[in-house]
Amino acid sequence: MRRLGLDRAVAIARKETRQLLRDPAYLGLAVVVPLLLILLLGYQLSLDVKGLLVAVVDHDRSPWSRAYIDGVVHSEYFRLVGVLDSPEQAHEWIRSGRARVVIDIPPDFGRRLSGGLSTSVGVTVDGSFPTRGQIGAGYVEAISALYNQRLLREHLASRGAGDASPWPVQMELAVWYNPTLESKNFVVPGLLVVILMIFPPLLSALLIVRERESGTILNLYCSPAGRWDILVGKALPYVAVSFLDFLVIFAASIWLFRVRFVGEVWILSTGALLYSVCTVGLGLMISASTRSQLAAMLATFLGAVAPAFTFSGIFTPAGSLDAVGRFVSRLIPATYFMDVVRGSYLKGGGLAPYAPSLLVLALYCGVVYVAAWLALRKRLG
Amino acid sequence: MGSRLAAMIRKEWSQLFRDVPILLFVVWAFTGAVYTGGHGIGSELRNYPTLVLDLSRGPTSRELLSRFRAPYFKVVGYAESDAEVVRWLDAGRASLAVVIPADFERRAQRGNARFQVISDGSQSMSATIAGAHIASIAGRYGVELLEARLGGTGRAGLPQVDARVRVEYNPNLVETWFSGLLEVLNQVTMIAMLLAAAAMVREREHGTLEHLLVSPLRPWELFAAKVVPVVALVPLAALGSVFGIVHGVFGTPIRGSVALFYAVSVVYVFAMASLGLAIAMVARNLGQAMLLLLLILYPMMLLSGAFTPPEAMGPLMRYAGLLSPVRHYVDFGYQVLFKGNGLAYVWPDVLGILGLGVILFGISVRRFARLAR
User: What is the least distance, in Å, from the CA of A5 to any CA of chain B?
Assistant: First the structure.
């Protein structure tokens, strides 16, 4: 007769815990590696694009062109690497990567501006890294806008129309959630999501297939433990490790990185717990359906870790993914946890905005464990 | 001696090719993963979800709003009230809201109109780019209004500088051109390390490493036998992926020398496989090996210069990155395949890969020799 209760699952959990504790190097790595990663990447992975290498070809060499170049020099976004003589040389610099942006000032630049006429500068951007190219182009436009503003003010004053505003339409920019636009507020929570998707599933993906390789799975087959007991028993210690990872990274993000946190800890923790159950279950599902540890590891890597990195929105707002990207992003749990994490850190606002994502995560857990249960047959072969 | 090595290589080779799941994963890594990966990463501004709250509803505001257009912005909704704006931004359905006050039309006539832009700063980079774009939209529109107003009094035109942007190599800034290639280069890195490390850990876990160590095989022969199948397989798979997916599906122009790319990829895979083996020898089991691998792999990939340009990194990482073969390989890959540069341009990268390869190879073989003693 099947007894009620969890004691069989608990017994398996105790065995797994003991196994985990007996390999301190392994356990140490499982906690220390995520911490090291967040320290290393959190401090060094800045997404702020500053100091882009820019070269200028000045055909004009007038006070006007020098004033324009001054604007480039004084911008923190650019580092002027040289004033060149010929467009060919500029092309060469872009090609070799010595400059990412080249600004070409035409010979009649100063003459036209002093005559009250409009002119243009040629901006050549290295497009091999599109984001960088777009940002570079954007910065040049911003610098031109500043220069234009000054030109207009002087021009209007000289025409005796000094009372007219040179800027009839003005934008007031309000930045919500991350007013200082610091990338750490965006990178560190994103890393939390990705790191929790790397280690727990990779570790749990070895759990069942390892026993299969070493033959000890027969012990489980012969034991009275049911499939659910095995899954729950194996999952529990690893969910605990994963949650521990979460706590460590969370603490680091608050006290070390001083990331803004305006939400509720319990909502984030609930999300992290669901996510941990889910990621460990994903590993178990893969583990139950593969035949070698190596295959399990690769499957987890390509099926769980890599998509989380690419599609969870750590670098891209989900809204700007294309159709394929959006579709994939809706299929992976990291997207939903990212929602809860970014929201909890930067937006807050109670449970209501995050309830749907939490619900999807819970559903995901159910699906993953049922799939693992189906894949885990108690039979030989 | 030659036959010994050949026999060992044959053993590794057939072991690799008998492992169907592994082969399937290698195939997926260079096809499906590259295809999906090509659609993912990228933080450039595209179809930025924008919400509009227009309280003025005049011709001036309509004209201004019409300039929020593709490819940068995509208007996803029209709000009726402030509360609605808050709801859309809180839910993350829009990342940007443009609010035009009721007196916009009237003040535009007088030359001091204002409108408000509320930006979701949680994606700080996109928010920064979006802000810059809107500033230039507003600036340009303002100049047009001014020109129209002053047009009657004097000659048309105002002293203005227009930045005419031309993008080399990728004129339309197609993201998949970039990220597809990056995905291939990253897969080369990962698969080379994983396959080599796995081949070693497998021997250790099955206890067959001892057999090999007491066999007449020299350490370097054992080492070579583990590396050769990986070196034979991975660069070829990368070539297939570059032509099949990156060029074939994404339409990325391949401008450079394929032979050069292949040759350097062989050296690179050799270096990364050596690194994988070195890690596998430190680790006791597959789990440990994997954790160590990731600890090394992720920072190397993130600091490869593909996500953040090297010049924007902290000085520590900028120089540490030079010690990472990944950094050289990514730079090399883009320069050769994408820009069509030859050895005259990429020799520093090739030198870096060669040098680091020799060092990694040396470390690995030494560890092997110590193991054999």
Answer: 32
pLDDT value at position B262? 95
The CATH number assigned to the domain holding B101 equals 3.40.1710.10
Most confident of A39-43, B194-198, B299-303: B194-198
ipTM: 0.78
Q: What pLDDT sits at residue B132?
A: 81
Give the bridge partners for A171, in sequence order.
B115
Reported pTM: 0.82
Beta-carbon count within 10 A of A86 CB: 10
Least confident piece of the model among A27-31, A203-207, B159-163: A27-31
Which residues from B are below 8 Å from A124, CB to CB? 166-168
CB atoms within 10 A of CB B137: 22
Place of tokens 């036998």: B225
CA B338, B339, B341, B347 torsion-angle sign: negative
The domains located in chain A, with CATH, are 7-45+183-375 (no CATH), 52-158 (3.40.1710.10)
In angstroms, the CA B165 to CA A134 distance is 10
The answer to whether the CB atoms of A152 and B28 lie below 8 A apart is no
Q: Which of A294, A338, A341, A344 would best serve as a mutation to test chain B binding (most B beta carbons within 10 A)?
A: A294
Residue B167 lies in a domain: no
- Do B99 and B182 have their domain in common? no
- In-domain check, residue B14: yes
Q: Is B355 on the interface with A (CB under 8 A)?
A: no
Q: What is the pLDDT of residue B137?
A: 86
Cβ atoms of A183 and A46 closer than 8 Å: yes
Task: Please choose, from the candidates B313, B283, B241, B298, the residue with its C-alpha nearest in 3D space to the C-alpha of residue B38.
Answer: B241
Mean local confidence (pLDDT), A124-153: 84
Hey, how many other C-beta atoms are within 10 angstroms of the C-beta on B77? 15
Structural domain harbouring B290:
2-41+174-372
pLDDT of residue A318 exceeding 90, the answer is no
Chain A residues 281-310 within an 8 A CB cutoff of chain B:
290-295, 297-299, 301-302, 306-307, 310
Count Cα atoms within 13 angstroms, Cβ side, for A217.
Answer: 21
Beta carbons of A39 and A187 less than 8 angstroms apart: no
E strands present in B55-190: 73-78, 96-100, 113-120, 161-168
Averaged pLDDT of chain A: 84
